[in-house]
């Protein structure tokens, strides 16, 4: 089992287990090989048997209640993970798109006045979407929306409240409303046609509609709508844009949408003048939480607005609706196939301290790695795609936790239960153990000493209120303090009963000395010219310096006739350091004449300044010359004009005479 390190490192087995697996060395510099907390391979080299090495291993236990097929598309459905901190654990999630899968369709229609031509085609929707050539969209439901019943969205004049349509419109026109739930999801096609056929158009004042209010109520009113355990699809059809969160302020509605169901007994949304329109983010969160996929069936003039909206709402698509909604069945069928062929695997409710990532194996050698969610597109029916999910724990969980992995828009999920391995599963305690010299209890690889004894193996006897464990450790501290910042035995030995047992080549009362940590020169201790004593070099005769690197002799600087360094330098460490103007091993060679680069640079600067001044003077003279010539031409022209006027005046006077 792992052994423990010093008091400045892992003091208990639990702390050792929490060390990350990628740490290269668990031991501090100078710690002995006898330390218990180490890498497994290091413990094996110390002849620790399998029964002695405690190394909790991550584990995965899978239980799939239902195999894939017969409407089940996702497996497994339950996983139990045991994780070590910092050790990623991976498992595989498989999804196979079912050939036939039940679909709930709710049709949400804009009944503002501009949609009057579309209502006739929608009345046949229930029968057509259930025909053999289309996707299986049974059961189906129906709801409609116009706008909030408040100024400036709807006229509140009494006559207009009763009949908001334009004068001269002869067909029935119902009062405006924000959202009305008309028909609960049903497989009765005739009931669908009967309910829809009774619907009439309405009207509002401004162009945007209250579609967001309607979407929110359809998503959260689960029982009223009748959503079942099937793929849920909401078809939103309109020929205009939508009101957003904040637009309610125009009518004095400031309270944010609460995301709750507010339908009265008649299916009307009765809090439309209390709560503002929901935001895009709020809608996206609610639709995802309730596994609802959204199809925007909109006309050409506003399709770009809805495409931008769809990018912010996962599992939503946009289809081009004809002006009279004649292509609505084909649009729904194609949009459903597009939605069902896009698989998004995501997680929810992940507890703090856990990280989740995905590798998506989508077939045809398509692989995406390190994603925040699994994603595959263009998945065919009966095609299986696999996702490798990696879970990593960065800290210990206080208790067993769980989170959900699910495919967006499908009521199937994988529940992952996680527990972290942050403690040691040790054997039973052994009292008066021989491991503790019979003076303590041996548990989880460590001795808990009886009164009167201390030490790693309870080998030291103590006197009450005198030789405590802390007092004995103080004797091993170089600073003679019990500060946790001071390493025992200088970090180079073990404190046994108040005395330091030094490791390796360390020595001294507190293991403060060694003969290998002196300065080096030419990769040799004390340059090979001295002896290392307690971290300091004691140099041999004729050598000096921190690493004994400097010779005190001068024989290498001496010349036969010219003295030391030819009197042109100084001898340092038996080498000549020449005065300026000379070089060579004995400073015998003069340097070539030398010109200070500063003088050259200064000369260049002066020449440059002079040239720049001359150029500026020339430019100035040219400008003066140009100006002079321009003034001269102007003067000559004015003079010619004066002469011409004088001749004309003379001719005129002569004619008068």
From TrEMBL:
Ranges where the Integrin beta subunit VWA domain occurs: 13-424
- List the GO biological process terms: cell adhesion mediated by integrin; cell-cell adhesion; cell-matrix adhesion; integrin-mediated signaling pathway; leukocyte migration
Q: What is its main location?
A: membrane
Transmembrane as UniProt keyword: yes
Where does this one sit in the cell?
Cell membrane
Q: Give the matching Pfam families.
A: EGF_2, I-EGF_1, Integrin_beta
Highest taxon of the lineage = Eukaryota
Q: Which InterPro entries match?
A: EGF_extracell (IPR013111), EGF_integrin_1 (IPR040622), Integrin_bsu (IPR015812), Integrin_bsu_VWA (IPR002369), Integrin_dom_sf (IPR032695), Integrin_I-EGF_CS (IPR057243), vWFA_dom_sf (IPR036465)
Keywords, alphabetical: Cell adhesion, Cell membrane, Disulfide bond, EGF-like domain, Glycoprotein, Integrin, Magnesium, Membrane, Repeat, Signal, Transmembrane, Transmembrane helix
What are the protein's GO molecular function terms? integrin binding
Membrane-topology annotation of the record: Single-pass type I membrane protein
Transmembrane regions listed in the UniProt entry: 605-624
Cellular component per GO? cell surface; focal adhesion; integrin complex
Keyword Cytoplasm assigned = no
What protein family is recorded?
Answer: Belongs to the integrin beta chain family.
Query: By what name is this protein known?
Result: Integrin beta
From which source organism is this entry?
Answer: Oncorhynchus mykiss (Rainbow trout)
Taxonomic classification, please? Eukaryota, Metazoa, Chordata, Craniata, Vertebrata
């Amino acid at each position: 089992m792992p052994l423990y390190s010093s008091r400045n490192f892992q003091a208990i087995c639990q702390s050792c287990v929490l060390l990350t697996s990628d740490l290269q060395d668990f031991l501090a510099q100078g710690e002995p090989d006898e330390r218990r907390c180490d890498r497994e391979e290091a413990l094996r080299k110390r002849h620790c048997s399998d029964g002695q090495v405690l190394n909790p291993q991550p584990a995965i236990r899978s239980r799939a209640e239902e195999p894939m097929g017969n409407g089940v598309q996702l497996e497994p459905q339950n996983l139990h993970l045991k994780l070590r901190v910092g050790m990623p654990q991976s498992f595989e999630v498989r999804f196979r798109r079912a050939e036939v899968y039940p679909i709930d369709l709710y049709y949400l229609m804009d009944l503002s006045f501009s949609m009057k031509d579309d209502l006739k085609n929608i009345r046949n929707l229930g029968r057509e979407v259930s025909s053999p050539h289309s996707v299986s969209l049974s059961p189906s439901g129906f709801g409609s929306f116009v706008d909030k019943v408040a100024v400036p969205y709807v006229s509140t004049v009494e006559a207009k409240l009763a009949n908001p349509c334009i004068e001269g419109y002869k067909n029935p026109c119902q009062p405006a409303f924000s959202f009305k739930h008309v028909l609960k999801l049903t497989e009765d096609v005739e009931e669908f046609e009967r309910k829809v056929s009774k619907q009439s158009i309405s009207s509002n004042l401004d162009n945007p509609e209250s579609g967001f209010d309607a979407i929110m109520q359809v998503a959260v009113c689960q029982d009223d709508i009748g959503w079942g355990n099937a793929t849920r699809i909401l078809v939103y059809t309109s020929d205009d844009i939508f009101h957003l969160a904040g637009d309610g302020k125009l009518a004095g509605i400031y309270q944010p949408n609460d995301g709750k169901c507010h339908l009265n007994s008649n299916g009307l949304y009765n809090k439309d003048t209390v709560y503002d329109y929901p935001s895009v983010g709020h809608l996206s969160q609610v639709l995802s939480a309730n596994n609802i996929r959204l199809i925007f069936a909109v006309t050409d003039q506003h399709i770009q607005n809805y495409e931008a909206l769809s990018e912010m709402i996962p599992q939503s698509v946009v289809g081009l609706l004809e002006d009279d909604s004649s292509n609505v069945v084909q649009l729904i069928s194609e949009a459903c196939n597009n939605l069902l062929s896009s698989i998004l695997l995501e997680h929810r409710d992940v507890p703090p301290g856990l990280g989740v990532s995905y590798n998506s194996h989508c077939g045809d050698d398509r692989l995406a790695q390190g994603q925040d969610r699994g994603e595959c597109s263009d998945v065919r029916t009966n095609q299986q795609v696999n996702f490798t999910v990696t879970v990593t724990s960065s800290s210990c969980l206080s208790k067993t936790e769980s989170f959900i992995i699910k495919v967006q828009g499908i009521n199937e999920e994988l529940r992952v239960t996680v527990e972290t391995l942050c403690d040691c599963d040790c054997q039973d305690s052994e009292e008066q153990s021989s491991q503790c010299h019979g003076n303590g209890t041996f548990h989880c690889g460590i001795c808990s000493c009886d009164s009167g004894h201390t030490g790693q193996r309870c080998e030291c006897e103590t006197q009450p209120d005198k030789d405590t464990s802390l007092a004995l450790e103080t004797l091993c501290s170089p600073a003679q303090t019990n500060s946790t910042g001071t390493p025992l035995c200088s970090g180079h030995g073990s404190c046994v009963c108040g005395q330091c047992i030094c490791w390796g080549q360390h020595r001294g009362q507190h293991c403060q000395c060694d003969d290998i940590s002196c300065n080096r020169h030419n990769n040799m201790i004390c340059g090979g010219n001295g002896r290392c004593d307690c971290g300091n070099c004691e140099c041999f005769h004729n050598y000096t310096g921190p690493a004994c690197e400097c010779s005190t002799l001068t024989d290498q600087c001496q010349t036969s006739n010219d003295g030391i360094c030819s009197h042109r330098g100084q001898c340092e460490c038996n080498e000549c350091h020449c005065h300026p103007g000379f070089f060579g091993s004995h400073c015998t060679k003069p340097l070539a004449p030398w010109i200070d680069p500063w003088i050259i640079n200064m000369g260049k600067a002066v020449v440059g300044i002079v040239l720049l001044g001359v150029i500026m003077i020339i430019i100035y003279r040219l400008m003066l010359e140009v100006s002079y010539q321009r003034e001269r031409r102007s003067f000559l022209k004015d003079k010619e004009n004066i002469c011409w006027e004088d001749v004309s005046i003379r001719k005129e006077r002569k004619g008068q005479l």
